Amino acid sequence: MEKRRFAQEALSEWMREDGPDSEIVISSRIRIARNLRHHPFPMLATNQQSREVMERLIEVSRSGRLGELGSFETFALSDLSELEKRVLVEKHLISPNLANESRGGALVLSGSEAVSIMINEEDHLRIQCLSPGFQIKEAWQLASEIDDIYEQQVDYAFSERRGYLTSCPTNVGTGIRASIMMHLPALVLTQQISRILSAITQVGLAVRGLYGEGSEAIGNLFQISNQITLGQSEDEIIDNLYSVARQIIEHEKAARERLTAESRIRIEDRVHRSYGILSHAMIMDSKEAAQRLSDVRLGIDLGLIQSLSPQVMNELMVLTQPGFLQQVFGEPLNTEERDVRRAELIRRYLSPKT
Question: Residues 280, 285, 286, 289: what is their CA dihedral angle, to the nearest 10 degrees?
Fold first, then answer.
């Protein structure tokens, strides 16, 4: 079977662009949760009710107004293989929850993959917009525009007192989750990260790993997002996250300057040691790969390695995930086989091009 477009390249089109502060902020994301009035939440819906919701939202998705924002393709989750769904999760285009949904789940995906619209996940509709670098306000503007398109054609579940009604009480109100994926190796190396993350939680924000709630912060990648959705306006939520993220960026920049000023030889050794291991290792598990790729990415950002681009590191972070490895090599792989293939793939990308 021919690979679907989203499985052909590890990097989505939007990830190939540079954004503001992209040496620290990998991406900015807005996710809006909505439900249809007079329809049970997905977890309570029958198969027939889920299909009705899916058909109605797909109909709206194929309307002319959404098409004005670019090209979109629709996928029923039942038509995708388990491996394809895993690849979508690894590219952050669907949630693990939707990947496991067998009743009326669907995905509406833009050509650039900057917009992914999940149908019948935890809520009937989840609109996700992604932007490269520190562009959370731009992502919000796009998500709001898409939300308006749907709201003009379907009746949302809404309470004058509580706002938008959602399956999970923590999303009630605005239904917005705004998050910023940040690469913070210098704050980790200077042992400032615990203090800063503790302070973040005191201002209504949450810190998670690469794959959201419950995931570990591997490769020095941290996802900072709002926790409060009720009692604040959308703009207040975005502005609060923006302000805190700006401070974290400045702290990371200061920590990088401190490292290069006070421990340059140690940083150079760490960066080139990881580069050497990645270039020659015969076996590599995912956790070690993430950490050493983080070291090399820091070296690129500090100008210590000039033969690689940050995009190569971003691409390898996706390519070396279990699902994409199996997609690349075209065969199912057990844990040990994945570790061997992961090392092989990294060597291939980092070897000098002749």
Answer: -30
